[in-house]
Automatic annotation (TrEMBL):
Record protein name field: Catalase
Active site: 131, 203
Cross-link (3'-histidyl-3-tyrosine (His-Tyr)): 395-418
SMART domains in alphabetical order: Catalase
Residues the entry annotates as binding heme: 128, 167, 216, 414, 418, 425
Annotated region (Disordered), positions in chain: 21-78, 86-105
GO MF term list: catalase activity; heme binding; metal ion binding
Pfam (any one): Catalase_C
Organism ancestry: Bacteria, Bacillati, Actinomycetota, Actinomycetes, Pseudonocardiales
Top EC class of this enzyme: oxidoreductase
One GO process term, biological-process aspect: hydrogen peroxide catabolic process
Length: 732
């Protein structure tokens, strides 16, 4: 008699169909570690390597000299189904050394042991002296064509798509430090243009600590951990840092930015980027202008509050890199608009009284508006952190036709330093042949040999002019668009170690920054100074920094002095400045794309949860269901992504509460979100949870019987990032 039970093939097809339906109802939450779910038992049937996840790809497959190879991305990864040596010999065992008997000594002839341990011993390369902790992503830049009147660079042309790799980083900490420390963030972008690589190596702050690159070792030595104890790690709240900046008042402007909310971004996706220096742009007619580069995030500029940063340091030290990777994996691709501030290229190289060669100065956007010239979208995660993010090598001297440097003394030193550091980190002069650094333009550089030479050069005459190689390579003529340094007249001068007199004003722009902030941002700035200086041991250093702050603003100085319990120094007569609204993070409205919504579920009202979850997904946001335990919720098709044990408020941009009024962990989550000025919504028994937590009413607290109305109002509140009205600041 024929069996009515489905066969293996039919059963597998049914299970696959069920899985597909479940995936449509419950789209996978970002963070899955592999490209397919693991089996419970160890696989024993040989098979080839799994493909990468859909959000991952490596560098483009070009040759060491920039030629497209046509090879698939997977050709760089592991090949075949069997474990082999590095030269391809298959291995039958990798768990036991070759011994003289099972209890005997290990034999010197064990070539597999030697190779395996040798390579392991050399897996790590020297980490970067600064910007050691970073995270990168691949993407594409599309030019608007709006820069053609000032810059001839081909990648800025209308509709031109250019592959990019971007690396975000902190400055002071080691690779093992936390993401959410108060620090400057690197924002380095490598454009693989058809005219060669262009590296825009900037920060999330438009100014720097120092005016001359010769002081760079000094400021980094001061900011790094104390050399005797190697503490504190990844922070500036210690004596040597404040000793330096209080004796080098040119650092005051950058210190103001660092102590502001800009020092602890909410996310790389919500972080501005700046080229810091003034560059010289050249158009097709040879005309020049001076310009500053800006990256404007589509989601707006937003920061963590101080308590969130502290919680994240322990709860999730990888907070920023996880946020970026998850956003890309879930399809919420981060975007930034590249813009230019354009100033005339005058002999003085100043604009509205601002010295454009001083890297501690900004040009307020009200004086020179930022003009959009293209859009950056990050849409692919790296396949391998070491091969890509760790080995990417940036250099401010990687320029393309249309972009030139200026005589900014910090920029001039960076032009020297970047090549030097790659020689040590990447073990030789051929670091641009590493796949992540390879240009996507033809390379014929006459450079030969050296460590890690991957190119196989032909010909016999790596010099020019030559006749033995038919004259190749030839120099480019004007019509071939070569990279040409702009001819600049040099003043008749004697060699001096001095700075221009215009570099001497160290306080007007820090005062401009302070006066441009909203009251809540000013309060945060005072608190940051108070905390950092409060961690210093030496009283003289605290008093000296108060003297510096007295040159910025009396209210700022008094607030910090009060927090430190020190007398307020006398304030000199300060310059009047016109505030720049563009410097404040508060007062704008931004799209909710990619925001993370925590939903505390009520098992008795899963219909409301389902409706809200689907609406959150449709709005381009990420819903995370939080329940007492993980797994399926009751008999429904809903699955909890977080539990009361694993969830913490810092992960969510807003919190919705549908129930579980009595659990103290829910109360803690609500109270933290309340303290951090986040929007909170509730319906059903969730109202009781808010009341039990002492957060039942107030600005940004939304309650209603209809879950959809609650979500709609919370989404509106998200446009401003936080509900600052909940805590009126004491500073006007």
């Amino acid at each position: 008699m024929a069996s009515h039970k489905p066969g293996k093939l039919v059963k597998a097809a049914l299970e696959k169909a069920v899985d597909k339906v479940t995936e449509l109802v419950n789209p996978p939450i970002p963070g899955t570690p592999g490209s397919e779910p693991p089996s419970l038992d160890e696989p024993t049937e040989p098979r080839g390597p799994l493909p990468p996840k859909p959000d991952q790809t490596g560098p483009e497959t070009v040759s060491p000299t920039g030629a497209p190879t046509g090879a698939p991305q997977l050709s760089r990864g592991q090949q075949g189904e069997f474990l082999t040596t590095s030269t391809g010999a298959r291995l039958h065992d990798t768990d036991h050394s070759l011994k003289a008997g099972e209890r005997g000594p290990t034999l010197l002839q064990d070539h597999h042991l030697r190779e395996k341990v040798m390579h392991f011993d050399h897996e790590r390369i020297p980490e970067r002296v600064v910007h050691a902790r970073g995270y990168g992503a691949h993407g594409v830049f599309v030019g608007y064509g709006t820069a053609s009147n000032v810059c001839m660079a081909g990648f800025l042309g209308d509709g031109v798509e250019t592959p990019v790799f971007v690396r975000f980083s902190t400055v002071l900490g080691s690779r093992g430090s936390a993401d959410t420390v108060r620090d400057t963030r690197g924002f380095a972008t490598k454009f693989y243009t058809k005219e060669g690589n262009f590296d825009l190596v900037g920060n999330n702050m438009p100014v720097f600590f120092i005016q001359d690159g010769i002081k760079f070792p000094d400021v980094i030595h001061a900011g790094k951990p104390h050399p005797d104890r190697e503490i504190p790690q990844a922070q500036s709240a210690h004596d040597t840092f404040w000793d330096f900046v209080s004796t080098h008042t040119e650092a005051t402007h950058h210190v103001m930015w660092n102590m502001s909310d800009r020092g602890i971004p909410r996310s790389y996706r919500m972080m501005e980027g700046f080229g810091v220096h003034t560059f010289r742009l050249v158009n097709a007619e040879g005309e020049t202008v001076l310009a500053k580069f800006h990256w404007k995030p589509k989601l707006g500029v937003h920061s963590l509050v101080w308590e969130e940063a502290q919680l994240a340091g322990g709860f999730d030290p990888d907070f920023h890199r996880r946020d970026l990777a998850d956003a890309i994996e879930s399809g919420a691709y981060p975007q930034w608009e590249l813009g230019l501030q354009i100033m005339p290229d005058s002999p003085q190289q100043t604009f509205e009284g601002i010295d454009l060669l001083d890297p501690t100065k900004i040009v307020p956007e009200e004086l020179a508006p930022v003009q959009p010239i293209g859009m950056l979208t990050l849409n692919r995660n790296p396949q391998n952190y070491f091969a890509e993010t760790e080995q990417v090598a940036f250099h401010v001297g990687n320029l393309v036709p249309g972009v030139d440097v200026t005589d900014d003394p910090l920029l001039q030193a960076r032009l020297f330093s970047y090549l030097d550091t790659q020689l040590t980190r990447l073990a030789g002069p051929n670091f641009n042949q590493i796949p992540i650094n390879r240009p996507h333009a033809p390379v014929n550089d006459m450079l030969r040999d050296g460590f890690h030479q991957h190119a196989v050069h032909a010909g016999v005459a790596p010099y020019r002019p030559n006749t033995l190689d038919g004259g190749n390579p030839f120099v480019a003529k004007a019509q071939d668009r070569p990279l040409v340094e702009v001819a600049q007249p040099l003043p008749r001068a004697v060699k001096v170690r001095e700075a221009p007199k215009s570099f001497a004003d160290h306080f007007t722009q820090p005062r401009l920054f302070w006066q441009s902030l909203s009251p809540v941002e000013k309060e945060h700035l005072v608190n940051a100074f108070t905390f950092e200086l409060g961690k210093c041991y030496e009283q003289a250093i605290k008093e000296r920094e108060l003297l510096v702050l007295a040159g910025v603003d009396a209210t700022l100085c008094a607030g910090v002095a009060r927090g430190l319990g020190l007398p307020v120094p006398a304030t000199a007569r300060l310059k009047k400045v016109t505030p720049s609204p563009a410097l404040s993070q508060v007062g704008h409205t931004w799209p909710p794309d990619g925001r993370i919504i925590g939903i505390v579920v009520d098992p008795a009202d899963l219909d409301g949860v389902r409706t809200v979850r689907e609406t959150v997904l449709a709005g381009g946001m990420v819903p995370l269901l939080i329940a007492p335990t993980g797994g399926p919720l009751g008999d429904s098709d809903l699955v909890a992504q977080r539990t009361f044990h694993t969830a913490r408020s810092i992960e969510f941009d807003a919190l919705l509460v549908a129930g579980n009024a009595t659990d103290p962990r829910v109360a803690l989550m609500i109270q933290e979100c309340f303290r951090h000025a986040k929007a909170i919504g509730a319906w059903g028994t969730g109202r009781t949870a808010l009341e039990a937590a002492g957060c039942g009413t107030g600005p940004g607290i939304v309650v209603d019987d209809d879950p959809s109305k609650v979500l709609a109002e919370v989404t509106t509140l998200l446009g401003a990032h936080r509900v600052w009205d909940r805590f009126p600041p004491a500073i006007a």
